[in-house]
Amino acid sequence: MKRKFFDEYMKLGLNITYYRKMRGYTQEQLAEAIDITPEHMNRVENAYTGASLDTMFSIAKVLDIPVHKFFEFRD
Fold first, then answer.
1. Keyword DNA-binding: yes or no (predicted)?
2. What is the CATH number of the domain that holds 27?
């Protein structure tokens, strides 16, 4: 992953983690629900890799939130 947007990927991962935990999912459960590996889910949440739009839409659908919520970054 390019380091150019590392801060944004970190914030994105933190938002995914926040909403995942609010809905009571583990990384493994969410990964299974959207058909990715738990390792990939971990890498997305910890900013080691990005996520495709398909993955982002799938996460949002499972967590029952609008996808834009993942991109609401607070400083």
1. yes
2. 1.10.260.40
